[in-house]
Each structure stands twice: as structure tokens, then as C-alpha cells.
Amino acid sequence: LGSLGAASGLVVMGALWYVAKQRLSVRSLLKSALKTSEIYMVYQPVVNLSTREWIGAEALVRWRRPDGSDIRPDIFIPIAEETGLIQQMTLRIMETVAHDSVGILKKNPRFHIGMNLSGIDLESNTIIETLQRLLEHGHLRANNLLLEATERTLLKAHLANQVLSDIRSMGIAVAIDDFGTGYSSLSYLTELKFDYLKIDKSFVDTIGTNSATSHVIFHIIKMAQSLKLSIIAEGVESEHQARFLEQHGVQFAQGWLFAKPMLVADLVDHIHR
Ligand code: C2E
Ligand code: CA
Ligand code: CA
Ligand code: CA
């Protein structure tokens, strides 16, 4: 039995070593990809639910390998976070967005561009310096930007509170993302100041179903309204969901019903003046 225990211990150690080694090889692939066009951005329009007009877009990162295969952001972002590459990646993303914004803002100077923050971005002031630099040297203005942070992100970052309030004092809007999927949501909403609340797709999916949680979205909307937060619903796929949300006072939405994430050239082509 003792030797069996030792043997299974070895198997576990072997598996852990294998996973660690794979992470390291993904890290080195990602590190070099960051210097190439393998890493690029797509933009998913955010619409005004009552006019269906595109008022903004969320920037989403993509990784396409030279062999044409795509690696999903929910796979490579956690690896970038764990292997210390995320700051470099966020910098690259922000510079790309600043560059892309020139064409976007020519079409509509009031367009909003949303960017996702990772927990590590909220652990230091680097992000503040990057944002200041972009605002000083580019076409972007503070009121064109919306920075999104998830509850999970806020939980991990000790400086989150201070960094987010610094971002807001620059005149940049902040959103609590994937609302309802993290922990202790209520304390974040009352302690930190947000401008927008993004309702996670998992709640939008329950609209019109008999699922036990289908009433939850109703309460999330009511709560956001009582805290005077603007609401963006994500993952809207059906006209029925869009109508429900609009009838309950949700102003903004994104989802495949309106548009899928697209390259900046396509976005610019379709923005109304
Ligand atoms: P998220 O911030 O919740 O982004 C929304 C995700 O929902 C995106 O997935 C988007 O493509 C997808 N989506 C939007 N509408 C629909 C719909 O109607 N139906 C369905 N089935 N899906 C829809 P994506 O691009 O794969 O991103 C996944 C997550 O990776 C994001 O979730 C975000 O947490 C993270 N992420 C993406 N880009 C970035 C980035 O530039 N920086 C950071 N830190 N995280 C990012
Ligand atoms: Ca987001
Ligand atoms: Ca989200
Ligand atoms: Ca989500």
C-alpha cells in the first residue's frame, strides 16, 4: 500500500509538472505573439435598446496562431495573468485601441470604447500612467472610454478601490462586468463607485424560460436602477430578450442579435455619422 501511495504521488507530481510545462510553453508562444499580428482586437457594438443605434463597442482580444487556429481569450488571459504577461498584453491592447479609435471617432466623436481590465492591472498605478499617456497623445478623450472590471477581479486586487477611483477622477467611466457571477456583489456596489453595470449573459439567457433563476434578472435591474447605474445587458441573442430588457428600463445591450465582434474596419464602415 505504501508503495502504491508513493506511485500515485509520482503520477500526481508528473501531471502537475506536465501542466506547469505546458503553461510555460504557452507563455513563450504568447510572449512572441504579442509582438506580432497574431494578437489583434475585435469590437462588439453596444446598442441603445430603444433606437438600436450603435453607441459604442467593447474591445475584445483575439489570438490566431500562424496555422490558422484560434486560442480563446478565456484560455490565454488566465495564463497571461499567471505567468506575468498580462501587463504587457493590456498595454498592447490599449495602444491598439488608441490607434483604432482615430477612425472610429472620425465617424462618431461620442462613441464609447469599452476595455476589459484584469486583476493585475488594478494592482499598481501603471494603468493610470498608461491611460494618461494615451489621453495626452492621442485622439481619445476620457469620455470615449469605459473600463470594465469583474467582481472576481476586484476581489483579487488590493488596490482596486484606489485605482478605480483614480480612473474615475480622470473622467473615464467604469463598469462592473459579469455582474451576478462573482462574490459579495452588494458590498462592491455600495463601496465602490461605478457608472455602468453589465448584466452577465447567464441571466439574459433565463429570460422567457421557467428556470428557477429567471426572476433574478428582474431584481438585478431594479437594484442597478436604485443605485443610479446605467445598465448594459450582454449576450442578447433574441428579439424576445431585447424587448423584455427594454420594457424593464435597460438602456443598452450587446449580443449576436445586433452584431458579433468584428474588425475595426467593419465597425467603422457601419457606424452612422
Ligand atoms: P466578457 O467581458 O464577458 O465578454 C463578453 C463575451 O461574450 C465575449 O467573449 C463575446 O464575444 C461574447 N458574446 C457577446 N455577445 C454574445 C452572444 O450574443 N452570444 C454568445 N454566446 N456570446 C456572446 P470573448 O471575446 O470570447 O471573451 C471572453 C472573455 O475574455 C471576456 O468576457 C473577458 O472576460 C475576457 N477578455 C476578452 N478580451 C479581453 C481583453 O482585451 N482583456 C482582458 N483582460 N480580458 C478580455
Ligand atoms: Ca467585458
Ligand atoms: Ca461581461
Ligand atoms: Ca460574460
From TrEMBL:
It catalyses: 3',3'-c-di-GMP + H2O = 5'-phosphoguanylyl(3'->5')guanosine + H(+). Keywords: c-di-GMP, Cell membrane, Hydrolase, Membrane, Transmembrane, Transmembrane helix. Residues 23-273 form the EAL domain. It is found in: Cell membrane. Its EC number is 3.1.4.52. GO terms for molecular function: cyclic-guanylate-specific phosphodiesterase activity. This is cyclic-guanylate-specific phosphodiesterase. The chain holds residues 188 to 460 of 460 of the full protein.
